[in-house]
Description:
Blueprint: E1 23-25, H1 32-45, E2 55-63, E3 68-72, H2 85-96, E4 102-111, E5 114-115, H3 124-137, E6 142-147, E7 150-154
Parallel strand pairs: 4-6
Antiparallel strand pairs: 1-7, 2-3, 2-4, 4-5, 6-7
Helix pairs in contact: 2-3
Bound molecules: tetrahydrodeoxyuridine.
Tetrahydrodeoxyuridine binds at residues 50, 53, 55, 57, 73, 75, 82, 84-86, 120, 122-123, 126.
Amino acid sequence: MLGVSSFRIFAPMKELIHICHYKLYAYDELSEQDRQLIDEAQCATGRSYAPYSDFQVGAAVLLDDGTVVTGSNQENVAYPSGLCAERTALFSAGSAYPEKAVVALAIAACMEGKFTRNPITPCGACRQVMLETELRHHTPMRILLYGTEGVCVIEGGVGELLPLSFDSFR
Ligand code: THU
């Protein structure tokens, strides 16, 4: 049996800390372009199909030529078959405009008929897809997370949300 005295604590070779850099704004303080993208994400919540969670999420993607593509969460009785709003929007943009870079992504969510007070953040799978979208087009995306109490703006790209990410094995 191992006793406490069997463990030796070594100093690490390096110690690193990841910081997520984001800014909080009131909706009215944002640029017109940011507000329009958030408005599109809010509208997209109305096209959500979420009979199981009753949580309506909308996403809006801004492409480098100004085109906006939206998506909403689409659920299914076989739960894993559903898809989050972010991936619905990103895959829709990727299939309609494969050559265009995504320069911004806005997200809004609705519960019991009201937008959430706090912004919601994308799930891990969506972060991975967001990251690959950036890598594919060599363009970092501006991320806007809407809440009625404030909008979280991430300007440094998806890496802020997904440190130590899996990129490629090649
Ligand atoms: N959902 C999204 O669409 N985006 C997120 O960022 C978080 C969660 C969806 C998945 C599911 O349909 C519902 O919200 C409840 O988790």
